[in-house]
């Protein structure tokens, strides 16, 4: 992968060299003075014009969060295909189990940029954090409500347990789902550490129902004793995956953030045009199964931008969490949305 980055920088150097050639026949000489535009370049000993060397763009190093599924897909695609290198970015990665965990690591400086779905973004919201764009709009239906053999209808869940991944979108839709059914005070939401732990708990009857997603759905087979009842489209209309950094980093590293956003515009266009390629790259990076990753990438509708609908949905989640006593009353997630740089690099990608 490092070889590819170096190759990308060489290609960038060639592109910059071509630009310099268009602007003028001669560049600066060693003394720092420039040739007159009317003066032809001196011939070399071979009779050819002397080649001008374009300066390389200064490399900026940044640390980005990834996970073991598809939150890190834009990062892996950007590294593998040279989009970050083309912007003079040297990207290193730090792996977290969930987007929520990566957001918690931001203030500590463990990473410079992290990703979070709506619930995680709002749960982590503070004046220290800045949302600077959205890379995807996962369609409702990603989370599937799965029952084990002891349950066949939602009414039978009364007095039983539902597994959740605390602090994630999965937990959010679980809460919305039980609220919508009017059984929130009649079931127990049991936190578990990961999606496959949810599957195991369903099979051992430690829990009786849970929203599952992604690769975990491969465990729902006729032989498993697990059945799909429905999905999260009953309780949500839109979702977003957000790019988040700290307010301090954004203030002190404007150029780094600008380059990251510019790269992500190209990366998400590539992902949308070739989701299978993005799945293959991600599978190689995480030792995963491309077939299991592809639905999540396709369903995510990759696009670097921001909409008023997403802004309003974040505000809706904020109100929900305040009423539940999960976040401070002074939380103002809309004030943390900082889109000046995104409007600069992709003005048509922001609709408000």
Describe what this molecule looks like in 3D:
The structure is a single chain. The chain has 13 helices and ten strands. The chain has helices spanning 2-23, 73-80, 83-86, 99-105, 118-123, 169-181, 195-203, 247-252, 254-273, 275-286, 290-299, 308-323, 340-345, and strands spanning 60-66, 89-95, 114-117, 129-136, 144-147, 161-164, 188-191, 209-212, 227-231, 241-246. Helix 6 links the parallel strand 6 and strand 7. Strands 7-6-8-5-9 form a five-stranded mixed beta sheet, sandwiched between helices. The protein has a three-stranded antiparallel beta sheet with strand order 3-10-4. It has a two-stranded parallel ribbon with strand order 1-2. Helix 2 crosses helix 10 (275-286), helix 9 (254-273) packs across helix 10 and helix 10 (275-286) packs across helix 11 (290-299). The protein has two domains: 60-139 and 238-349, D-Maltodextrin-Binding Protein, domain 2; 144-234, D-Maltodextrin-Binding Protein, domain 2, CATH 3.40.190. The protein has 352 residues and is α/β, with parallel strands linked by helices.
């Amino acid at each position: 992968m490092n070889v590819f980055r170096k190759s990308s920088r060489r290609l960038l150097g060639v592109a910059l060299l071509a630009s310099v050639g268009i602007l003028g026949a001669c560049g600066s000489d060693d003394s720092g003075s420039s040739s007159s535009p009317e003066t032809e370049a001196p011939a070399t000993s071979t009779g050819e014009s002397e080649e001008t060397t374009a300066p390389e763009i200064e490399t900026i190093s940044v640390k980005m969060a990834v996970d073991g599924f598809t939150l890190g897909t834009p990062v892996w695609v950007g590294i593998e295909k040279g989009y970050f290198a083309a912007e003079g970015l040297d990207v290193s990665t730090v792996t977290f189990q969930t987007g929520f965990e990566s957001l918690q690591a931001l203030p500590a400086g463990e990473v410079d940029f992290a990703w979070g779905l709506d619930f995680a973004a709002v749960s982590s919201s503070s004046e220290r954090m800045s949302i600077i764009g959205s890379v995807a709009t996962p369609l409702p239906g990603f989370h599937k409500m799965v029952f084990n053999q002891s349950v066949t209808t939602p009414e039978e869940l009364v007095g039983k347990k539902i597994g959740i991944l605390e602090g994630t979108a999965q937990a959010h839709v679980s809460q919305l789902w039980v609220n919508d059914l009017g059984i929130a005070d009649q079931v127990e939401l049991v936190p578990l550490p990961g999606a496959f732990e949810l599957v195991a708990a369903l099979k051992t009857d430690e829990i009786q129902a849970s929203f599952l997603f992604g690769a975990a759905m491969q465990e729902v087979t006729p032989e498993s004793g697990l059945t799909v009842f429905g999905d999260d489209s009953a309780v949500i209309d839109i979702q977003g995956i957000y790019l988040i950094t700290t307010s301090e980093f954004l203030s002190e590293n404007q150029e780094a953030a600008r380059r990251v956003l510019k790269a992500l515009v190209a990366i998400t266009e590539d992902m949308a045009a070739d989701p299978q390629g993005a799945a293959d790259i991600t599978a190689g990076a995480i030792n995963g199964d491309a077939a299991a990753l592809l639905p999540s990438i396709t369903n995510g509708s990759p696009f670097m931008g921001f909409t008023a609908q997403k802004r309003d949905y974040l505000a809706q989640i904020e109100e929900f969490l305040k009423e539940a006593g999960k976040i401070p009353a002074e939380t103002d997630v809309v004030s943390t949305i900082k889109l000046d740089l995104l409007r600069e690099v992709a003005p048509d990608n922001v609709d408000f």
